[in-house]
From TrEMBL:
Protein name: Methyltransferase type 11 domain-containing protein
Methyltransferase type domain span: 64-117
MF GO annotations: S-adenosylmethionine-dependent methyltransferase activity
UniProt-listed Pfam families: Methyltransf_11 (PF08241)
Segment forming the signal sequence: none
Domain of life (superkingdom): Eukaryota
Cited InterPro entries: Methyltransf_11, SAM-dependent_MTases_sf
Amino acid sequence: MDSSLDTTHSSEIHSQLLSSHIEDTATVSSMSDIEEDHLETTTRIGQLFINGSPPISRKLLQNLEFYEANVVNAKLPFEDNHFDFVQQRLVTSSFTISDWKCAIQELVRVTKPGGYIQLLEIDHYTFNLGPLGKLWEAELINTIREKRKMEPRMACHLPDLLKAMGMADVSSKLVSIPFGSWGLDLGVLWKNNIESFAESTAPLFSKLVGCTPAEYRQKWRTLIEEAKDRKAFSNIHAAWARKPADYKQDAIDWSLCPPFCTDIK
């Protein structure tokens, strides 16, 4: 039977991760809305976390298991070539550049030859911002790159990452998310998400950029206010590829992925 692995950090703990200085401990998301008869194949859903604890698993349904496992400092609790389909999503705000290297190698390891890997991430860049908003976002992105050794725009490089790993048939797609009331309900929801991000990251990121939490929040309020009539938006990127039948570890070429070609280690 086919099997799949879905790996992520829980969005519910995003604010906890940041306000606790990126302790990187994930919690189990609720799966109560999944009905057993909707799952026709053997499906295993895993969730990444980076706190060094041993793997934890729980069986939610007859053909659905949930795992907490360490993908950065240890191997996932699965044999080589185990899954037909592996997905990783929404980890940009948690992974350093070196974490990305560890994680993608583990995902490839547990994917069967001929199986597929899909990556889904938000590009942490907002288009059509006002002048002050652009300056603030650029300052924040550059600070995170320099001081956290993270790449906020990794979403733009997902195809490059799969190519660097030697994957075949690499494809990609992006979907734009409106920011603000011009995008109706979706735009308002995304604006609310940005506001929550600004509030939850204030204790940590204000220190990174060298301002007070109050000043940090004001910069975000200015960005949001300027964006009202500018039809601002962000992009979500997806990329997927096939693991070649004759895949070899020496196929990896990090130089094909630009974030790995900088001085960020």
